[in-house]
Amino acid sequence: MTETIQRKINDSAFARWTALVLIASTMFFGYMFVDVLSPLKNLLETSRGWNSTVFGLYGGSEFILNVCGFLIVAGIILDKMGVRFTGLLSASLMVAGAAVKTYGISEYFCQGGFGFEFFSSFLTDIPASAKLACLGFMIFGCGTEMAGITVSKAIVKWFTGKEMALAMGLEMAIARLGVFAVFSLSPWVAELGSPSVVRPVAVVGVLLCIGLLTFLVFTVMDRKLDRQTGAAAAAGEPEEQFKVSDLRRLFTSGTFLTVAALCVLYIGVDGMLAGENTLVAILSISIGAILGELLQLDEHMHQLGDWVERKFGGKGSKTSLSDGFVTASLLFCVGAMAIMGALDSGLTGDHSTLYAKALLDGIISVVYASTLGIGVALSAIPIFLYQGAIALGASFLAPYLTEAVILEMKCVGSILILGLSLNMLGLTKIKVMNYVPAVFLPILLCRFL
Known about the structure:
449 residues; 76% helix; mainly alpha
């Protein structure tokens, strides 16, 4: 009896290393785009009005969505959809982000092109070109980081033994060479003819498209490998895949709750520093506590939370519904954006600040809802009432909500947030809800002190 041993495509050294070069090329062009503007800071300052602060904001925008949890989503996509789909998706995101960024710094956009008016209507101290470039860089950053984990899994799939470590090292080395290459290429391309920041970005953007094509070629090879190994994989032990319950266990663990509490602590400490009149803060907290105790706000809030939990379930959470509700309500209502955005909306009809705040609140609420529960979602009610009341009464409230008053309200509110964080860490049992009236007292006290 004779057995026919079928050679797989990755048994060929030439095919293996060709596959590596293809996926490493995608990462090489990606890393080129990461730093394409780094050598052009001075040109951006003179031609687009960026300063060092704006340039730093742009540089950090690449990681914003990844820090907010996109990498977890990317890992789930990779686990469920496989190397080919995830790789093409990540390369497409890089190309899409590059296109948005290129348009953002283009002459057409900066001279009033489509979207310029909208991006100029909020955060007016930041040029519209920088804001759109940051958006593009965020999208690109999602693609880059997703591609990084996808390439690692692809190497594990194609290589074995000592070759695997060598392949990973070579892939990373080739990718990092992109940074070295662009620091030489970008200034040279920018100075061809009349100086231009768009030209090098567009050139590297074209190279990104080539990187998408190289990954497309790799997918053809990878599909062939899957066909050759399909029978063996079916006979073997199935690979353990991601389950939603795994993510739920992560987010509801004591460690993640501690991380969330420390983040709240930082927000509280940072906001406390905004105040300039210590006496106003002390009096607001003292008088607010007395009013809250007389009204028994904390007791009523917990009774309402317990009633909702009995009515709709929610047992087993490490935090009560009322804790999540109070924490989120304070986090989202205390701050200049909530007040100034509502005032702009009511006085001028400009809703851009509220739109930006809604986007930020949405991202943050997802993170805190994983540990604080459904109470975070219910905080939408007081946020709506608070910001809506300010917008509707803007013409009456505007003279009273001066910059000094807003800073003191933020300071007092941040003191309450600090108390919330200590409760979350289990260090205290402060009845924070009883102190909520203190947030509004600076409106009155700042007129006399």
